[in-house]
Specification:
The complex is a heterodimer of chains A (1016) and B (215). Among the domains of chain A are: 208 residues, Rossmann fold (3-Layer(aba) Sandwich), CATH 3.40.50.740; 165 residues, 3-Layer(aba) Sandwich (Dimethylsulfoxide Reductase, domain 2), CATH 3.40.228.10; 141 residues, Beta Barrel (Barwin-like endoglucanases); 114 residues, Alpha-Beta Plaits. Helices cover 27% and strands 20% of the residues of chain A. Chain A contains 32 helices and 40 strands. In chain A, helix 8 links the parallel strand 12 and strand 13. Chain B is mainly alpha-helical and 215 residues long. Chain B has 10 helices and 1 strand, in the order ααααααβαααα. The N and C termini of chain B lie far apart (70 Å). The chains are: A alpha/beta (1016), B mainly alpha (215). The interface between A and B is large, with 41 and 46 residues.
């Protein structure tokens, strides 16, 4: 089934439409290691030949000047004046803190190298991270070293002084006080921070007539509205997916971009981690308009336009009621108020089967509605969860004791007479829908104070722009979704003089401390119970990275108002050929644009399309055919010549390239947010993406019906990595259903082309079996394809970015990639448009008979005695034979001095580098090392502690540490008691290309799906 | 017809046959000696900002190496001590010595003393002091008789071949853990055999593969 070259019917996996159509057979570049021109410096005005000439000339000059005769440069050692106690210069230190990452609170442990924070990971003691992290958490550290972050106070766009700012704030404070805050509006990127909430409440008391808006674009307003209607204002949901047997996502990407993804991904994976084929696993149903990471992981997925997801939820409720589920008493009338069910045979069938399954898993299921869905759908989800008995079990409710009343930013549209506008964080001028009223309010105000990390679109019209400091530079406190409270401590003094949001807000109050430390302590002194040694407790909180865990509160929602919400819901028509539906997506890389200046995220391939540096709209192949679009079949490696379409909706229009993607609902066009930034910085400027915010409106912020999509004559080259490093469709990904695995325990073996006994080597096989032998196993069942490993690797191993032009040439450097396969069943027509997806992380396999080692003329890649395939950068002369001979295509070549280029682009990025990993120069091959620096460090530690043997679980490579589902396990395969050995003994363990007799050390556990037998 | 080659050119092949071996042998010798780290690296003794004498402190006064380089047992670096370590004693001792002027000034201003690095490894080679100390390799094995140096110089070539010599056969350089910082300890005198040392509980197993040092 995984033989894409087989012409027989049945299951078939493929990576791109071009591959499916067989068009890439004619691609002359396919047989080449790198595409044509990959080694030509076409991006720069200087050609390779010219470059060599110039280099030769300068080398000659250098020789005559005598610089070559100098002995060596003098290096200085500058010791401390007074070294802090227990400080070991050059040794990494780890501090617990808490960070806001996207829209989730992450309990983090930050690695600091001689005072420089270099890496962010999850805090194992924090219940909402358990040591894992996410794409955004891994990339956050690069944001700290953003060269374009705001560095000085600006007054009407010109540099000013802090003293003048303080004076202006004091004046404003007096004016606000005199008017009791009338005509003043605060637009604050609200965070679940007790201190921020305390200050906002103090401001509300000091200026009772001032208005307070939440300016954060990722706030889940619809959910908040529904919960408030149900009498749960100030409460937050905390899903407990470990015990959930059936999980239903209603347009919610809860595994990657929405809410507490790190915790939910971990719990979800724990609910489907298989030790043996007799284990049970949970089942995930996803109803969504286009593939998200959650949809890629689903056991059953239904593509529905976002506008019809609510109708599906209604259908499900109806089916459950028919099946005999007793609904809460005050929901009477809801069944009559429900919208018409989607006219879709598949939806009907899915709802019937799902209702049956939910009935048998009462109290052990979870219905999660997504942020795109309106309040009434969240209300329906709450009814479903309550009626199914999930409340208090898989859905716990916690109360935010410090919660503040916020108005949504859209309420600004009806506000008038705002003279003073104070904007704290966020970027409403870019992220707010065009009719939100923010722009008018900002124009109309006499003075606008703006605290921002970048001088961005919001800062443009501000009277005063104040630099904001990064979360790693500030004191603070945060409350995670499950109510766990923790402190944030600064890892480094602000690189540029700047204030945190609480320091800025405190300036508008009398009698508050000016420093973040004092502000946070004031909050916690008041919160702490009386008989407590506060200073000792404070030290412990900082050390542990956690103050106290959240306690769920028993709640009884009232559903009367929800029924009225459902009754009053706007019924959008299902899209058809005349009017398409536009669905907006939080971009999996740059979110709402907040990470647009982060090079790692810009170059990170989208989990579904594998497009880098751009935002491409997505439509399904059948819709594309109807619109007459280019079907991505002309792929020449990284080039994707995409048709640009014009999208018109609500009187607005824009032009955007389309990437035709299976899995999008018919007549839906998906538009990712966060690109097309006018002002954010030099990295964001390198992205040619399109700002799709103008198409959004307050009432239709996340999907909008009635769109006209027309093909234009323009095309746009997208840089996509999906066909890079092709392994020519051999049986690489292997999957089965849970029932199938039970029936045929060795299903992974059926793809082997050669029986093991026939695999004989001509030479003595160098398979050392003494001492500790390192190996890795990756569980494809729990892998989400979210890319966290890729960014973690980039942060750990000093991997530079190369830019869009070079990605198009196949020169990206990321050591671990996620191969994404679509899988269809020729015999079932419905799967042609709606395939299943398989993700497979691929890094160096550390083959025991490594083909790369045999061809290196200078022994720059050699085998270590513990089974690692080592890369010796200082020996490498750049023949690239090894990359040619690597069957897995995991070797990356420094065609140019990318590190130097990155340093020129970002002079601060040097501070992020890991000093324990060599920085590679031009002309050097590189690849995954199994994080050899961590292995060696652990071994050295073990030797100092006299055992000499590294205990299991001590070494975690960066990818495995970051993996939100802990799908990557590393350890000693020579010891049968280690976790990795236990996993490798499973019958679904396989290695890729075993018939080459190369014995890769990295093996995979075949993907097990858990479809409902009734839907098979 | 004119003679192109004069008569004496007949001797050229003979001269070449006799001369080339000499030149070749000379070149091999010259390169292997003068181009090697033994010549280029060992003996490097840059002037330091403070006329600190290890011969006085470690030799005559008998200070243990770890009094100043106190991170050597726990960390990769045997860190250069902070100014406060100097002042521990020199707040009372020789408070008016002109040689100590830069130290007093650094202490007063809080600026670091700009010591010049003597033992420099390439950036792609990663060395860890703590693991060598734990194995019982004496300071003197790599750093020489620092207790006799007025100005510290590089004793060993610190070349890869030199590292590997010891990693392939560490025994001659091993001593009891307690004698690591003892510069004058003599293996023959102490009649020490690491194989019979009961304190040694594990195989040493020094890495000889690339990633042991290159990461």
């Amino acid at each position: 089934m995984t033989q894409s070259s087989s012409s027989s019917k049945g299951k078939r996996v493929w990576r791109s439409l071009a591959e499916l159509a067989g068009a890439d057979r004619h691609d002359p570049t396919r047989g080449r290691e790198f595409p044509e021109g990959a080694d030509t410096l076409t991006v720069d005005p200087v050609s390779r030949r010219q470059f060599l000439t110039l280099m030769g000339a300068s080398a000659a000059l250098a020789g005559t000047a005598g610089t070559g005769c100098l002995r060596k440069p003098t290096q200085l050692i500058l010791p401390f004046h007074r070294r802090p106690e227990d400080y070991l210069p050059g040794e990494p230190r780890h501090y617990a803190t808490t960070l806001m990452v996207g829209d989730q609170v992450l309990g983090a442990v930050v690695t600091s190298m001689d005072g420089r924070p270099t890496k962010i990971d999850g805090n194992p003691a924090h219940p909402m991270s358990e040591g894992s992290s996410s794409v955004w958490a891994q990339a956050e550290v690069l944001d700290l070293y953003d060269p374009d972050r705001s560095q000085q106070v600006l007054h009407r766009g010109a540099g000013s002084s802090w003293a003048a700012l303080e004076e202006a704030i004091a004046e404003t404070r007096q004016a606000l006080g005199a008017q009791r805050g009338a005509n003043a509006a605060f637009v604050i990127a609200a965070r679940p921070s007790p201190t921020q909430q305390r200050l906002v409440r103090a401001l509300q008391q000091a200026y009772p007539q001032a208005r307070f808006y939440d300016g954060d674009a990722l706030t889940p307003w619809a959910e908040r509205e529904a919960w408030a209607a149900a009498g749960l204002a100030g409460r937050t949901p905390s899903y407990q997916l470990r015990t959930a047997k059936t999980i239903v996502s209603l347009d919610a990407d809860f595994l990657a971009t929405e809410g507490p993804t790190v915790a939910l991904a971990r719990q979800f994976a724990d609910g489907r981690r298989l030790r043996s084929s007799s284990d049970e696993m949970n089942r995930l149903y996803v109803i969504e308009p286009a593939f998200s990471v959650t949809g890629m992981t689903a056991d059953h997925r239904l593509a529905l336009p976002s506008s019809q997801v609510g109708a599906f939820a209604g259908l499900l409720l109806r089916k459950l009621a028919e099946a005999g589920l007793s609904l809460p008493a005050d929901t009477s009338g809801v069944l009559n108020a429900l919208p018409e069910a989607p006219r879709d045979a598949q939806a009907e069938r899915l709802a019937t089967v799902l209702a049956e399954e939910l009935m048998s898993h009462r109290g052990a299921s979870a219905i999660i509605a997504g942020h795109r869905q309106p309040a009434w759908v969240h209300g329906l989800a709450l009814i479903l969860n309550t009626a199914l008995g999930n409340l208090g079990h898989t859905l716990r409710v916690t109360r935010d004791e410090a919660s503040v009343e916020w108005q949504p930013l859209s309420a600004l549209a009806t506000a008038s007479g705002i003279e003073t506008l104070i904007v704290v964080g966020g970027n409403p001028a870019y992220t707010a829908p065009s009719d939100s009223g923010y722009a008018a309010a900002a124009r109309g105000a006499q003075r606008v104070f703006r605290l921002g990390y970048h001088v961005d679109e919001t800062s443009e019209g501000a009277t005063w722009h104040v630099p904001q400091c990064h979360g790693l530079e500030a004191w603070g406190d945060l409350r995670a979704a499950d109510g766990t409270l923790s402190l944030a401590q600064p890892l480094i003094a602000p690189l540029f003089e700047s204030w945190s949001d609480i320091e800025f807000l405190a300036r508008f109050l009398d009698g508050e401390a000016a420093e973040g430390h004092g502000l946070v302590q004031a909050t916690w002194r008041a919160w702490s119970e009386a008989p407590l040694d506060f200073d000792a407790a404070w030290q412990r909180w900082l050390h542990d990275g956690i103050v106290r865990t959240g306690q769920p509160t028993p709640e009884r929602p009232v559903f009367g108002p929800i029924v009225r919400l459902v009754e009053g819901a706007e019924r959008l028509p299902a899209p058809g050929s005349g009017a398409m539906e536009v669905v907006f997506q939080r971009d999996p890389s740059v979110a709402d644009g907040r990470y647009a200046n982060n090079g790692w995220l810009q170059e990170l391939p989208d989990p579904v399309t594998k497009v880098t540096w751009d935002n491409a709209a997505q439509v399904s192949p059948s819709t594309a055919k109807r619109l007459g679009l280019n079907m991505n079949t002309a792929t020449v490696l990284g080039h994707e010549r995409a048709t640009v379409v014009q999208v018109r909706v609500g009187g607005q229009s824009l032009e955007i390239p389309v990437f035709v993607t299976p899995g999008v609902a018919a007549d839906v066009i998906l538009l990712p947010l966060g690109y097309g930034r006018r002002m954010q910085g030099r990295v964001a400027q390198m992205s040619p993406g399109v700002d799709v915010n103008p198409l959004r409106s307050v009432s239709h912020a996340w999907f909008r019906a009635g769109a006209q999509v027309e093909k234009t004559r323009r095309t746009h080259n997208l840089a996509t990595t999906q066909n890079h490093h092709s392994m020519e469709g051999r049986g690489l990904v292997r999957e089965a259903t849970l029932a199938g695995w039970r029936e045929q325990p060795d299903f992974v073996q059926e793809h082997e082309l050669m029986p093991a006994y026939k695999l004989n080597s001509l030479w003595e096989e160098p398979n050392p079996r003494n001492g500790q032998q390192w190996g890795m196993v990756i569980d494809l069942t729990t892998c989400l394809g979210c890319n966290a490993c890729t960014v973690a690797c980039q942060a750990e191993n000093n991997i530079p970015i190369v830019g869009k032009e070079r990605v198009m040439m196949g020169r990206e450097l990321q050591w671990i990639r996620l191969d994404r396969y679509f899988s269809i069943d020729w015999d079932r027509e419905e799967t042609w448009e709606q395939p299943e997806v398989l993700s497979q992380p691929i890094a160096c396999m550390h083959c025991e008979n490594a083909p790369c080692e045999q061809v290196c003329p200078v022994a720059a890649t050699v085998h270590g005695p513990e089974g690692t395939n080592d890369m010796v950068y200082n020996r490498c002369i750049g023949t690239r034979y090894c990359a040619n001979n690597c069957p897995f295509k995991v070797r990356r070549y420094n065609f140019f001095n990318y590190v130097k280029e990155n340093d020129a682009l970002n002079p601060l990025v040097e501070m992020q580098r890991n000093p324990n990993v060599t920085v590679r120069f031009r002309g050097v091959m590189e690849k995954c090392t199994y994080c050899i620096q961590r292995v060696q460090r652990a071994k050295e530690q073990a030797k100092v502690e006299a055992t000499g043997v590294v205990a299991d679980g001590v070494i975690k490579p960066a990818c495995g540490q970051a993996c939100p589902t802990q799908s990557i396990v590393f350890g000693d395969i020579n010891d049968p008691t280690t976790e990795v050995s236990r996993l490798k003994r499973q019958s679904r363990d396989y290695v890729m290309l075993s018939y080459l007799n190369i014995h890769p050390r990295t093996s995979y556990l075949g993907r097990i799906r858990n479809p409902n037998p009734a839907l098979a | 017809m004119a003679v192109i080659f004069p008569r004496w050119t007949n001797k050229v092949p003979l001269l070449l046959a006799m001369g080339v071996p000499f030149v070749a042998v000379g070149a091999v010798f010259a390169i292997s000696y003068w181009f090697s780290p033994k010549f280029l690296e060992a003996g490097y003794a840059p002037p330091q900002p403070v006329a600190f004498s290890h011969a006085l402190h470690a030799g005559d006064l008998g200070l243990d190496c770890r009094y100043c380089h106190n991170t050597v047992e726990e960390a990769a670096h045997a860190a250069i001590p902070p100014t406060s370590t100097c002042i521990n004693c020199h707040a009372n001792v020789r408070t008016d010595s002109p040689l100590l002027h830069p130290v007093r000034e650094a202490w007063a201003t809080g600026e670091p003393i700009p010591w010049v690095k003597v033992h420099m490894l390439p950036d792609y080679a990663f060395f860890n002091h703590s693991v060598h100390v734990a194995a019982g390799v004496g300071c003197v094995s790599c750093h020489g008789r620092v207790d006799q140096m007025d100005v510290v110089y590089q004793h060993a070539p610190l070349s890869m071949a030199w590292c590997l010599d010891c990693h392939r056969n560490p025994d001659p350089h091993l001593r009891p853990r307690g004698e690591v910082t003892n510069m004058a300890w003599d293996r023959v005198e102490a009649n020490y055999d690491p194989a019979r040392d009961p304190a040694r509980t594990r195989d040493l197993n020094p890495p000889q593969h690339c990633s042991g040092c290159h990461r």
